Model the fold of this input.
Amino acid sequence: MFVDRALPDDPAIQWSTSLISSLILKSIRNYGISVVLTFDGRGVSGHANHIAIYKTLRHLVSAGRLPEGCQIFSLHSVNLLRKYLSVLELPISWLLPSDFCCVIGQEEYKRAKKAMLCHRSQLLWFRRLYIFFSRYMFVNTFQAITMETKNVKIY
Done:
């Protein structure tokens, strides 16, 4: 797991956009990454670190700094009711518009559950409920982050 002391998992600490940018671009180039899945502007639960990553990726896209062919998709944050519908959220997510829908299978669910259990220091009672009831453990929908073309006039 990658850890950088300048980027602590703490929503009270503002992360450096330039540091995040350089780390993301380095990873994309070093590993030949062509698709990046990230949080949206709401950060799923309003987590400042998640939002910082989204804003950085959105900036990299709008500035044209990503390697050719690299696509960025942001996760749809949903309201509290939909968040805890578990697998019942599947038909709703399937029917609503999105650029990419990911349904998590049984093996992927087990892997995600195991990953969540590795974060014992953050595994409060409500996160245990999250593992069993959160829609994000079963289905995720994403929207493409593309370069904006506002105020473009073609003659």
About this structure: The first helix runs from residue 17 to 31.
